[in-house]
């Protein structure tokens, strides 16, 4: 049917959000220099939105008429995507809104999701402009797959949605302290790590988690019913974007990603396609954000299905749900965007400075777990709780500082959608 064919294959409309302050302050130049031409060549219409202040994107996305857009793409660091995701989850129609495909182009100094998405595409490691080109190319291909989000509760009852990490101790301190070196780009984390190592300290607190092995009985504390857990290690739940630009106007004819070209067929019209109508949500199912069925009240003790960590002296606690913590930190070798897992790492006190440095250096190639370090623990979990005892400190969510104090979190498998390779 010719008419339907044309309708389905109208070009996708992208809202391109650029944070001109991110990274070395060059995101806009990088966009005009490397991405604009690619999108033009591929006939992808986009509207450029340059953020003017913190939370600008969050407010904009909270109120936007999303029927006008087929994807929201963020050209910044991870911080701007954090804003966008929380803006979508603030909405009354969050259940529908959060299904708009999200894209990421590395324009910041902390580009963990961009590095992760590039890694999931099975491409060899890339940095800086090469990473940007790879992500731009993925955007033009238009494949979309599920993305897990983690719901984070703070002591003030505030709730956040996170796509990357929850950190306390060494990693959080480095992340925030190194912001003053933002002008040097991604290497800021290495500089911050060296500075923090010199003043290495111990952070006291209690940590508990719900391990994956001891998943709760299905009848009681199971996942929210509308989002069944996705299969770990699923290679490809994505499908093609049926836009007219995809197959034959590829801006990179060498196709260095070696992707199966079947993914790019024009005829594919599966539900994951970016222009497919998103499912209608009945009004009586509208609630303010998904139910965290695995989490008790933050004041209540954790259920006895949880594991309580004996140690209370830590150097770091890091919950991460993507493969990369930064462009050159391959923190979770097996992670997928939709593996339904929180990868929990902690390092207990007593580790020497050289041993900690070795872990971070090994992480570039994902080799830290093979270091045999007795202070490093790694668990796959569905939920966790952290209660700092040290009276002051830093907790970050997706690299952004949040209120310091008790915090708990649980995974929501595949509730968002991510543009990927
Ligand atoms: P980086 O990786 O360089 O830290 P981010 O995307 O994480 O880049 O952005 C850093 C912070 O800047 C985030 O907290 C984000 O909300 C905020 N932000 C977004 N737009 C602007 C702007 N126009 N001016 C200042 N800050 C902004
Ligand atoms: Mg940031």
UniProtKB/TrEMBL annotation:
Keywords: ATP-binding, Kinase, Membrane, Nucleotide-binding, Transferase. Residues 248-287 are annotated as: Disordered. Residues 248-258 have a biased composition (Polar residues). It is an enzyme of class 2 (transferase). Residues 259-272 have a biased composition (Low complexity). The keyword Membrane applies. Its main location: membrane. One of its GO terms (cellular component) is cytoplasm. GO terms for molecular function: ATP binding; sphingosine kinase activity. It is found in: Endomembrane system. Its EC number is 2.7.1.91. Residues 9-156 form the DAGKc domain. The keyword Ribosomal protein does not apply. GO terms for biological process: cellular response to growth factor stimulus; negative regulation of apoptotic process; sphingosine biosynthetic process. It comes from the Eukaryota. This is sphingosine kinase. The lineage of its organism: Eukaryota, Metazoa, Chordata, Craniata, Vertebrata. The chain holds residues 142 to 562 of 562 of the full protein.
